[in-house]
Amino acid sequence: MAPDAAGRIEIVQGDITTLAVDAIVNAANRSLLGGGGVDGAIHRAAGPGLLAECRTLGGAGTGEARITGGHRLPARHVIHAVGPVWHGGDRGEAELLARCYRESLRLAGERGLRSVAFPAISTGAFGYPLEEATRVAVAEVRAGLARWPSIGRAVFCVFSDEARRAYERELGVARRG
Ligand code: AR6
């Protein structure tokens, strides 16, 4: 655990498209051309300019991330991260999910962005078990904040009560550890 991550991580319950942070992370697919879930919500709120910009990117591989403008969102940027589809856990899912968080923070850190909000990547349509995904997310964001001191604020934006409790548990456990 990176002790200096303490105080820089928070949980917000609600719609990530409403957050006025430097970047929100999108749980995208490899096309980077939109979809359902949080991806659909982000594209609807950002407007057609986001899709037009995404078309220039040419997609991304699983575990990778790409950054665009925020268009009509209150967030200045969107970082599109492609989480893994859950296949039972023995196809490298944990490392691919970790890479999403690591790459997202790298893109933010390299651009000097100071606040980043993450949804619970892969835990919806992609079927990644919530508890296990939360463990990966918290560990990687702690490590990433230690690596990028300029990022002062990381938000875990949760939609459901269940997800909120999972993050509260994981952050609480990690803090005592
Ligand atoms: N704000 C915050 N979190 C949200 C929101 C929102 N507005 N809407 C949903 N969530 P999912 P995935 C939560 O399915 O599993 C798309 O079609 C949701 O409750 O959005 O990575 C893409 O195009 C869940 O906890 O993403 C891909 O094809 C979490 O966001 C595929 O789904 C992620 O659920 C990606 O699947």
Helical content (DSSP H or I, runs of 4+): 25-40%
Strand order of the largest sheet: 1-6-5-2-4-3
What is the CATH fold-level name? Leucine Aminopeptidase, subunit E, domain 1
Derived from helix and strand composition plus strand pairing, the structural class reads: alpha/beta
Q: What average pLDDT do the residues reach?
A: 95
Number of strands: 6
CATH superfamily: Leucine Aminopeptidase, subunit E, domain 1
Count up the domains.
Answer: 1
- Tell me the series of helices and strands, N- to C-terminal: EEHHEEHEHEH
Overall geometry: globular
Small molecules (ligands, ions, cofactors) in the structure: ligand AR6
Segments where pLDDT lies below 50 for 5+ residues?
none
Please count the helical segments. 5
Main sheet summary: 6 strands, mixed
Supply the CATH architecture: 3-Layer(aba) Sandwich
CATH top level is Alpha Beta
Would you mind describing this structure in some detail?
With about 180 residues, the protein is an alpha/beta fold. It has a single domain, classed as Leucine Aminopeptidase, subunit E, domain 1 (3-Layer(aba) Sandwich). The protein contains five helices and six strands. The chain has helices spanning about 35-45, 50-55, 95-110, 130-145, 160-175, and strands at about 10-15, 25-30, 65-70, 75-80, 115-120, 155-160. A six-stranded mixed sheet has the order 1-6-5-2-4-3, sandwiched between helices. A hairpin with a 7-residue loop joins strand 3 (about 65-70) and strand 4. The protein is globular. The mean pLDDT is about 95. Ligand AR6 binds next to strand 2 and helix 1.
